[in-house]
Design a protein that fits this description.
two-stranded antiparallel ribbon; alpha/beta; 5-stranded parallel beta sheet; Alpha/beta knot; binds adenine; Trp Operon Repressor, Chain A; 2 domains
Length: 227
């Protein structure tokens, strides 16, 4: 069972993504609990303000320490957390190996970044892990938090009904996955590679591995350079 607490200024953005398919099933089975907290509920300000102008006079707004510290302190008083994750483009990348590691944890907080980002003191004193989902800038960290949550929860044992399926995903072995086909074997002259209908399991495995290697070399040679 993993519990993920997401802290956000736009909780409405996170209402849909966890109510479908594998993630819904994982929640229904009690494998995952996902809670979304509105950061404004923790603001001391009478207008529920959660941001302020940056010192030094830069453009944009900065998320203030107070509501974030209050939200995280409240959650930490209820249970221990393995990681307090902050989503931001200026952070190390979320990869399959990070997802694998997080999926073994019990309690995680994800703090969604917004505006110019959080006051650096939040990152220095409260956050234990920073993650970017890629080299592009989104309008907020909510979609990144949804991506991370989905990537983590789907690989918890029992979330996917066929457990071998998660192991053959792209990236689990640093390779992109091989092409897949389903019936019919011939659709208007578009045929399926013969080996797949041969019934020869070892040959099919070899073919899949070759295809995965070829595709990775062609589309993502960087994955073959790693470790
Ligand atoms: N917030 C805005 N852009 C982001 C990104 N690429 N990854 C994580 N959080 C973000």
């Amino acid at each position: 069972m993993i519990r993920i607490d997401i802290i956000s200024v736009l909780p409405g953005l996170l209402e849909g993504p966890f109510d479908h398919s594998i993630i819904k099933r994982a929640r229904d089975k009690g494998l995952a609990e996902i809670n979304v907290h509105n950061l404004r509920d923790y603001s001391n300000n009478k207008h529920r303000k959660v941001d302020d102008y940056p010192f030094g006079g830069e453009a944009g707004m900065v998320m203030s320490v107070q509501p974030i510290e209050a939200a995280i302190t409240q959650l930490k008083s209820e249970r221990n957390y393995d990681e307090v994750i902050y989503t931001s483009p200026d952070a190390p990348k979320f990869t399959q190996s990070v997802a694998n590691k997080l999926s073994n944890m019990k309690n995680i907080i994800i703090l969604c970044g917004h505006y110019k980002g959080v006051d650096q003191r939040v990152r220095d004193h409260l956050v234990t892990m920073e993650l970017s989902i890629g080299d592009y800038v989104l309008s907020g960290g909510e979609l990144a938090a949804a991506v991370i949550t989905d990537g983590v929860v789907r690989i918890i044992p029992g979330a996917i009904s066929d457990s071998s399926s998660a192991l053959s995903d792209s990236f689990q072995d640093n390779l992109l996955s091989a092409p897949v086909y389903t019936r019919p074997a011939n659709y208007k002259g578009w045929t399926v590679p013969e080996v797949l209908t041969s019934g020869h399991a070892a040959k099919i495995d070899d073919w899949r591995h070759e295809q995965a290697l070829e595709k990775t070399r062609r589309l993502r040679p960087d994955l073959l350079d790693d470790d």
